[in-house]
Write a structure and sequence with these properties.
This protein is α+β, with helices and mostly antiparallel strands. The chain has a two-stranded antiparallel sheet with strand order 1-4. Strands 2-3 form a two-stranded antiparallel ribbon. β2 and β3 form a beta hairpin.
């Protein structure tokens, strides 16, 4: 499984950090960082993050 964030679209709202804190986090500059290849056990949280992103900037690929 691979997570991709389109930084051109992302507006750093941080909703993904609430939905999937094990994958998404805000860095010291207030910008989004994330684990591109998270554990598959976090799939439900990641799918929630995809759904709650106001900018629809998060994409999930693969198994």
């Amino acid at each position: 499984m691979k997570v991709h964030v389109d930084y051109r679209t992302c507006q750093d709202h941080g909703q993904c950090t609430i939905a999937a804190p094990g994958v998404f986090r805000m860095n010291d500059d207030g910008k989004l960082d994330y684990d591109e290849h998270p554990d598959n056990a976090l799939r439900d949280e990641i799918e929630e993050a995809v759904d709650v992103c106001p900018a629809q900037a998060i994409f999930l690929d693969g198994e």
